[in-house]
Amino acid sequence: MTAQLIDGNALAAQVRSEVAHRVTALKARGVQPHLAILLVGDNPASQVYVRSKVADSEQTGLQATLERLPADTTQAALLARIAALNADPAVHGILVQLPLPAHLDAQAVIEAIAPHKDVDGFHVASAGALMVGQSGFRPCTPYGCMKMLESIGYDLRGKHAVVIGRSNIVGKPMAMMLLAANATVTICHSATADLASHTRQADVIVAAVGKRHVLTAGMVKPGAVVIDVGMNRDDAGKLCGDVDFDRVKDVAGWITPVPGGVGPMTRAMLLVNTLEAAERASA
Ligand code: NAP
Question: Which residues, listed in sequence order, are joined to residue 206 by a DSSP beta bridge?
Fold first, then answer.
């Protein structure tokens, strides 16, 4: 292995410890940062995610309230719950766990969250703020990737970054954050012709596709930074990313593992956003 590992677990632990210090300072001023999580239905993966969000919050001194709503909750009932949480000054962050049951309009639900409580950063106001360079909540996954780049002291100015994937929650905001950090950014997607011709020119590659081995060693310039957002299962059912880690690690300069890379950082950045929501509300 020639690449240096960017250890998401270690960095996330550091972020959590910084959050815990700031939470202590807020509590000393009588403010208890509070995240409200709404879970509709009983999707097994969502159950695991919300449990870990609650545990992470409690570990750093944030209050997290998990509200479980039945799978047949109506759009009107869910919007009414969100309106109540928007109006509650003791709640600083609101997170609606996705995916929602098919009969619910997820985008309308996200838009119902007050932008100043949108700690997932999925509201169009948050996306717009990122687009025009205003302060606002950044989606946790690309925000975590930026922290990883910062942690290795990587200066993005003038570097060529290639983002593979253009979803609203990862690829597009990732590209915007890299652009804001003065990288030259290429966004690739399923209709991109000759993906390798783009990735081979990249100083930084962020893979956010959801397909195993989308990025192989021959597609990477020696010394490049490779950030693997993907979460897939290999033939043995083991968690793996989008990157052929075992081979790409011999070409890249820096690489994130899966598991133990972007995943823990995504979780950590939700805590940062919730803390910042509470800090802004009490400023
Ligand atoms: P998504 O909405 O399905 O988007 C995937 C993107 O990949 C799309 O833009 C798609 O292009 C593109 N794509 C598909 N096949 C491609 C190919 N062969 N070559 C180039 N691009 C291709 O997924 P997402 O929500 O962004 O998530 C991406 C992955 O990250 C998933 O594995 C997800 O589980 C994982 N994830 C991980 C974390 C974490 O914390 N680690 C957080 C969020 C997501 P089109 O737009 O043309 O369809």
Answer: 163, 227
Q: How far is the CA of 228 from the centre of ligand 1 (A)?
A: 11
pTM, entire model: 0.98
* pLDDT one-digit tens code per residue, 171-215: 999 999 999 999 999 999 999 999 999 999 999 999 999 999 999
Please report the atom of ligand 1 found closest to the CA of residue 261.
41
In sequence order, which residues have a C-beta less than 8 Å from that of residue 60 and are 6 or more positions away? 16, 19, 20, 23, 271, 275
Residue 51 makes CB contacts below 8 A (sequence gap 6+) with none
* 119: Cβ contacts below 8 Å, ≥ 6 apart: 35, 92, 93, 94, 95, 137, 270, 273, 274, 277
In the three-class reduction of DSSP (H, G, I as helix; E, B as strand; rest coil), residue 178 is classed as helix
Token pair recorded at residue 150: 């910062």
Whole-number mean pLDDT of the chain?
98
Pocket of ligand 1 (CB under 6 A): 141, 164-167, 169-171, 188-192, 195, 208-211, 214, 229-232, 262-263, 266
Phi, psi torsion values for 147, nearest 5 degrees: -60, -40
- Which domains, ranges and CATH numbers included, belong to the chain? 30-114 (3.40.50.10860), 140-263 (3.40.50.720)
Judge whether 107 counts as a catalytic residue.
no
DSSP 171: H
Digit-coded pLDDT (tens) for 159-182: 999 999 999 999 999 999 999 999
Place of tokens 């097994």: 44
